[in-house]
Structure formats: C-alpha cells, structure tokens
Amino acid sequence: MRLLTEITGSTKLCGVIGHPVKHSLSPPMHNAAFAACGLDYAYVAFDVADVSAFISGIRTCENVVGLSVTIPHKIGVMSCLDDVDPLARLAGCVNTVTRQGSRLLGSLTDGAGVLRAFAAHQVALDGKKVLFLGAGGAVRAVAFALATQAAPASLTIAGRTAEKVCALAADISKACRIPVHAAMLPDDLNRIVPEHDILIHGTPVGMHGADPNESVVPWDLLQPGQVVFDMVYRPKWTRLLRDALALECTVIHGLEMLLYQAALQFETWTGIPAPIDVMREALENKLEQDQC
C-alpha cells in the first residue's frame, strides 16, 4: 500500500513510523485533537523499513514537526537523532521524535503517560510497593519512569526469564535509590502478589486473539484494595481486570497508557494542553470499530 498525502505550505505534519503501522490507533486520536484545537496539523502513518534513510529524508522536510515511533524502530532510531532525553536514554528506547529548529530530539512518553494515568485516577504512588509482571520493553519504560519520577517504597520485576529479569532490575537499581527486587513467574506469584500495593501487568497474556479467560495472576491471590493496571488494551476488560474488579480492587485499563502517552506527544509537538476527552473518544471509537 502506498501513502499519498497532500500537505499545504503551512500545514504541520506529524506521523507514526513502524513496520507495519496500518492498524495504528494514533492517527484518529491525534487528528481529532488537532481539529479540536484548530491546529493546521495532519498526522499520518508511514510503513518504514529503513529508519535511517527515513530520518535522513525527514530532516529535509521542515514541516514535519514530530513523529511517533513504534516497534521495531524504538531502539534503532536513537542513533539517527541529534539528542535523546535522559529518561529515554536510561530506558534504551524512544517513542517520540520532535523537531527543534534543525535538530531532531528523541523522548519516551510511555512511562510518563502511565504516571499521568495513575494521577488521573487519583492513585498515589509514593510509598507504595509496586509489582511489575513482565520484563519487556513496555515494562522497562514504565519502571524507569516510576523509579525516577515518583517515590515508591520498592519495585519488584517478575518475569519468566531470569537473565532478563535480573538485568532489568539491576539497570533500574543503578538509576534510583529505592529497593528493586527480581522474582520469577509463575514460581513466586503466591508470595509476591499479596504483599504489593500496585500490580502492573506487562505481558501479552490476555491480549486480543489469545485466550480471553487466561490471566497471569490467579484470582484468589488478588487483595481487595490493591490497584491493578493492565497494559493490554484489547480487550478493554481482560480476565485480570475482571477478577480485580470483582475483588474490589482499583482497576486501570490499558487504553489509559495509550491515551496519556499520546497526550504527552501532542503537548510536546504543539506546546498546548492536549484535549484529553476528545482524544479518549476518538481512541474508544477506533477500538470499537476494530473489534466489529
């Protein structure tokens, strides 16, 4: 599929790059936000195989003011940029590119987006024991943001591959002064789930296309009053969140991470507050259409 787009001389262009990005949820959110704010901006999707060549071309297009970056380019794009902010450098990946004059700057809004989602749900992180289920890229981004920008009592990283889990725990420990622990899935679940205040699920279990009744966490390990955040956003109500709600936990849907990381991108590119309600409506409508 070829992308053809007409951009006027004054229109600012933003876009999402990845391979492929045809199912990206970002264009509806961002274009709805631009329209709501009366901005002459357009957000389009680019299927990009050679990220270095693409970024070289983007440098010559001054109307391109920002990019979202998806898998598999979140790491490779870093070497193509003029600078990367400290949090993205710590996490080792970038999901946002912003033009500042002749320079292209990389940043990471995934983790900060989750922090904003917690704040929007009036969930305090300070002094809380936080458990991450999974040790992949999304968990890495959120864990670094939480460890360096909030004040949790401790973090625990739980995953199925000991080498990966221990490496991530060690990297986070170097960046902060709070205790960071490593644990194994599923062996340590009985011990670690009940003793944490906040659970953040970052594995593919429960994702659309898999078993809708599967969950990393057995329901009887969840404790009333815990906060459970599931990064999976398709379906909205995963088995984990259904179980958590039934046990009177506070639940946060995965689409909140998608929404607030996009809002932070919007604000970085435009310099104005994001219209959250408009973006949420566009996101939910797109998700509903995709599931029909």
Task: Please write out the topology.
Blueprint: E1 12-18, H1 26-36, E2 41-47, H2 51-58, E3 64-69, E4 83-84, H3 86-91, E5 96-100, E6 103-107, H4 110-120, E7 129-133, H5 137-149, E8 154-159, H6 162-175, E9 180-184, H7 189-192, E10 198-201, E11 227-230, H8 239-246, E12 250-252, H9 255-270, H10 276-290
Parallel strand pairs: 1-2, 1-3, 4-6, 7-8, 7-10, 8-9, 10-11, 11-12
Antiparallel strand pairs: 3-5, 5-6
Helix pairs in contact: 1-9, 1-10, 4-5, 4-9, 9-10
Q: What oligomeric assembly is this protein in?
A: single chain
Strands in their spatial order, largest beta sheet:
2-1-3-5-6-4
Level of helix content?
A: 25-40%
Number of helical segments with 4 or more residues: 10
Strand content: 15-25%
Return the structural class: alpha/beta
Write up what this structure looks like.
By secondary structure, this protein is α/β, with parallel strands linked by helices. It folds into two domains: 12-108 and 257-290, Rossmann fold (3-Layer(aba) Sandwich), CATH 3.40.50; 112-253, NAD(P)-binding Rossmann-like Domain (Rossmann fold), CATH 3.40.50. The chain is 36% helix and 20% strand. The protein has helices at 26-36, 51-58, 86-91, 110-120, 137-149, 162-175, 189-192, 239-246, 255-270, 276-290; strands spanning 12-18, 41-47, 64-69, 83-84, 96-100, 103-107, 129-133, 154-159, 180-184, 198-201, 227-230, 250-252. It has a six-stranded mixed sheet with strand order 2-1-3-5-6-4. A six-stranded parallel sheet has the order 9-8-7-10-11-12, sandwiched between helices. Helix 6 links the parallel strand 8 and strand 9. The longest helix is centred in the last third of the chain and has 16 residues, at 255-270. The model is unreliable at 1-8 (pLDDT under 50).
